[in-house]
Amino acid sequence: MATEGYRIMNYGQPVKRYVQTMELRDNPELIRLYRLAHSKEECWPEIREGIRSVGILEMDIYILGTRLVMIVETPLDFDWKTAMDRLATMPRQQEWEQYVGQFQDYSNGMRSDEKWQLMDRMFHLYENETKD
Known about the structure:
- By secondary structure, this protein is an alpha+beta fold.
- The chain has 5 helices and 4 strands, in the order βααββαααβ.
- It has helices at 28-37, 45-53, 80-87, 93-101, 112-115; strands spanning 15-23, 58-64, 67-75, 117-118.
- A 4-stranded antiparallel β-sheet has the order 2-3-1-4.
């Protein structure tokens, strides 16, 4: 339950965090199927393996209605464009994108990194840090 919070991994080193957003189609059945496709039991192992193999340490997706928010944690030397280009060529990635695309509200022909829009952080609580 969300009111209990979510445990965060400790990597023993600083990491970068990327936050993205996307809309799902406004259809309760499609949203149910999208959630099911991302469940531990149903998510394709090749997709999780591909995500990890490009250097992503952790990935969470949150949902409220049709709005998705994805949080991605990576090492400090992670290069987003290089990783997304590589991920797009991973086994079954195109098939996965085509499958989950039926639930997503986007323009045809877009890659995953085009459908998910990177968000800008506008507030940061850590007052002792000098660099964002």
